[in-house]
Design brief:
Distance between the termini: 57 Å
Organism: Amorphotheca resinae ATCC 22711
Keywords: Isomerase, Repeat, Rotamase, TPR repeat, Transferase, Ubl conjugation pathway
Catalytic activity: S-ubiquitinyl-[E2 ubiquitin-conjugating enzyme]-L-cysteine + [acceptor protein]-L-lysine = [E2 ubiquitin-conjugating enzyme]-L-cysteine + N(6)-ubiquitinyl-[acceptor protein]-L-lysine
Protein name: U-box domain-containing protein
Pfam families: TPR_17 (PF13431), U-box (PF04564)
Structural class: mainly alpha
Strand content: under 5%
CATH topology of the largest domain: Serine Threonine Protein Phosphatase 5, Tetratricopeptide repeat
Oligomer: single chain
Largest sheet: 3 strands, antiparallel
Number of domains: 3
Order of helices and strands: HHHHHHHHEEHEH
Shape: elongated
Number of helices: 10
């Protein structure tokens, strides 16, 4: 059954959009969202209206939220924030369906997904936003102002995706430790039971066994074994990570920001930098950071081999994002 027909009025829709933009600029995000909704009702074919509403909803979700005191803690979202982030995802996807090469929609989509603790989905969206941003830059568009924030988002998503995998690994490892502990406890109880059976038999035969002393020995023996298993689990979960923290390879470090590169590009001299940091440098001074010779964005070439290596390194070492 066909849905109701929509009487499109693009003039009215654009007027409402402009009013929504004024509300947004004034910090009235709820008012902006309401006006963008009215604009969509008059023209549901305009992808820009969905990204504008998504932007308002993002701002509403972030407004009034406070960072947790513990940086490692996962922020607790209110039901309204969760609902708003879900709406951002819906609007971003609607915009993408109307315009596939929509950098802003993918950027907003990634922000909502990472806020809802969906790092794998967020990383895919952030990477697509980054790809579209680079394409826009090459075409001479306005992507240069967005490359920095999008690169930061890619790094955050990479880190959280790694942390999610690491949590799964540690949870599985903790399960194994608990399983070994249960087996040792069962073995201990079996030996204590055998001790008591042996004592009962020896009493019948006229011989005695010091049960309390022997039972204490068994209990202490298995307490040591259980503690060793626990310590091995802790060591396996931390030593490897700490060891990696001391070994960040020089080839993946950007010489401008000293951070791990996400999208390395190579200059005419053969030196590689992260695209976002080099573009920020070129805004200030159009020269090669190393040789001080004139350098333009058109002179940069993607270093695909290095990018692949950096991607692999970050995938396995998400902690390096904060290095």
């Amino acid at each position: 059954m066909a849905g109701p027909e929509v009487n499109i009025d693009r003039g009215k829709s654009l007027l409402l959009k402009d009013q929504g933009n004024k509300c947004f600029q004034a910090g009235d995000y709820a008012g902006a969202e309401a006006l963008y909704t009215k604009a969509i009702n008059h023209d549901p074919t305009n992808p820009l209206l969905y990204t504008n509403r998504a932007m308002s909803l993002l701002s509403l979700s972030k407004k009034g939220s406070s960072e947790p005191q513990d940086p490692s803690a996962i922020p607790v979202l209110t039901p309204i924030q969760i609902e708003n982030y879900e709406k951002v995802i819906a609007d971003s996807l609607s915009s993408i369906r109307l315009h596939a090469e929509n950098m802003k929609a993918y950027y907003f989509l990634a922000q909502a997904q990472i806020a809802l603790h969906r790092p794998s989905e967020a990383l895919a969206s952030a990477k697509e936003a980054h790809r579209l941003c680079v394409e826009e830059i090459h075409k001479g568009g306005k992507g240069a102002s967005s490359i920095g924030p999008i690169t930061e988002l890619v790094l955050r998503c990479k880190k959280e995706a790694w942390e999610a995998k690491e949590k799964e690994r540690l949870d599985a490892q903790g399960g194994l430790v608990r399983e070994l502990q249960v087996l040792l406890e069962k073995e201990r109880d079996r030996r204590v039971e055998e001790l008591h059976s042996q004592a009962a038999t020896e009493m019948t035969d006229g011989e005695g066994v010091n049960v309390p002393v022997e039972e204490q020995k068994i209990t202490e023996e298995y307490a040591r074994k259980i503690e060793e298993v626990r310590n091995m689990g802790v060591a396996a979960g931390t030593v490897g990570e700490e060891g990696k923290r001391r070994n960040v390879p020089d080839w993946c470090i950007d010489d401008i920001t000293f951070s791990v590169m996400v999208d390395p590009v190579v200059t005419k001299t053969g030196q590689s930098y992260d695209r976002s940091s080099l573009m920020e440098h070129l805004k200030r001074t159009p020269t090669d950071p190393l040789t001080r010779e004139p350098l333009r964005m058109e002179d940069l070439r993607p270093n695909l081999a290095l990018k692949e290596a950096c991607d692999e390194f970050l995938e396995q070492n998400g902690w390096a994002v904060d290095w």
